[in-house]
Amino acid sequence: MNRKVFVENNRVFFQHMMTITVTQVSSKKLLARINGNGRGWVFTPKAFADLGDPRVVGVVLGRLVAQGKIRKLTRGLYDYPKSHPRIGLLSPDPAAIAQALVGSDRIRLLPSGAYAANLLRLSEQVPAKIVFLTDGPTRLVKIGRQEIRFRRTTPRNLETSGRLSGTVIQALRHVGKDHITPERITTLRTVLTEADRKNLLKDSQFAPAWMRPQLRSIAEDSDHA
Q1: 3-state SS class at 13
Q2: Which of 68, 78, 147, 209 is the most interior residue, by most CB within 10 Å?
Q3: Distances (CA, A) of 121 to 19, 22, 30, 202, 218
Q4: Closest by alpha carbon to 200, among 148, 151, 163, 150?
């Protein structure tokens, strides 16, 4: 058997095996998991690692994209998009994108800058460039016109990750000392629950010294402010 025939036979055999495996990793199994997580879920092929060979999962995901059942955001990143009756498909939630990209790894994330301010209604502007502080690698992900940047930071800055108090601290860093108005303090009191305000008081130790009086003011019971 010459080399050309050998290569061709291998190619045909590989395609045949892929067809069998793709049949075994059926789109129904993937769709069941996707539907189970609900609309708005953002995911990578790793979310289906237990269902078969990653290459095969990729083939099945490609078919689901072609069928319009899921959306490909960028290489290796997909979502089950939410839709609006007038607007159509909605943009994915940046926090969901970030969580999908870090996966099950024990990597901490904390919204920062203008994005943190927008989350807490301190700013109406939705930033095109979104920043998460992390203890994982620094990286930049572009999805359409939106940029999501993961910026490596110190362990101290991430002591409040996973708690709303951390987002408050980052939002106020962005707003700046001279722009923390009574109106913004009132807004934060409205956004934060009583439990959030108690956590904020505890976590004020991780904030800059200039911010701590403002955090105490936010944490006060509004009936006694």
Answers
A1: helix
A2: 78
A3: 50, 46, 36, 22, 14
A4: 163
How would you class 48 by CB atoms within 10 Å of its CB: exposed for 0-12, middle for 13-18, buried for 19 or more? buried
Helix axes 164-175, 194-203, angle to 10 degrees: 70
Whole-angstrom distance, CA of residue 112 vs CA of residue 171: 6
Task: Confirm if 170 and 151 have CB atoms less than 8 A apart.
Answer: no
pLDDT truncated to tens, each residue of the chain (225 aa)? 565 544 454 554 445 444 444 555 578 889 999 999 999 999 999 999 998 888 889 999 999 999 999 999 999 999 999 999 988 999 999 999 999 998 867 899 999 999 999 999 999 888 989 999 999 999 999 998 889 999 999 999 999 999 999 999 999 999 999 999 999 999 999 999 999 999 999 999 999 999 999 999 999 865 444
- State the amino acid at position 201 in one-letter form: L
Helical H segments across 182-223, by residue range: 182-191, 194-203, 212-219
The Cα 116–Cα 66 span in angstroms is 35
Which residues contact residue 25 at a Cβ distance below 8 angstroms, ignoring those fewer than 6 apart?
48, 51, 52, 53, 56, 57, 60
